[in-house]
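Moderator note: this is an archived Q&A kept for reference. The question asked for a predicted structure of one protein chain; the sequence and the answer are reproduced below.
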Amino acid sequence: MNLKEQLIKEAKFAFLDTETTGMSPVQGARICEIAVVINGAQTAKEEFAAVLNPGVIIPQEVINIHGITNAMAAAAPRFEHIAPRLVDMLDNAVIVCHNADFDIPFLAYEFSLCGLRIPQSMVLDTLKFSRKHGGFKKNNLGHIVTELGLSSEGWHRAMADAKMTEKVFYHFLAKFIAAGAKTVGDLEDLQLRKI
């Protein structure tokens, strides 16, 4: 069965966030932290996070956002050392990001540098859900969780952001299921259309 046809209640969700050295891998930026939280009704919860050595200097203006210093990164593993663990975690999972158009190209680039491909998956984006169904004052992750009455502590660190993305996703999932969504494909459609 392909992931689109999978029932929501049977799906394995991988909430993923990256912190990077810049805005685009095309411009030479790399991942310097990654976190994945696996969850689903029939899946054991699993969490993984790692600061990574990106092999490039992290500019000060970026350090000011996420707080990952060059010294922290220098002592960390490279992406290729954690890639096998990520492949296992993301296998048969629906990847959920907040602003997937940012995270997924970085992830695909890092996998390609290791001679690997990002595991075949569907990607859902809580930013797209927020824009279509949220009505928030701002659609960035920290503001959304604050408006939902949740903590934004640790915002701009990968594990905190992955956990916030999970909470935002389940906020929308309750609405979508109440409106009749049954499959992962239904959720994919709701990124583009209103309920």
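Archived answer notes: The longest strand covers residues 31-40.
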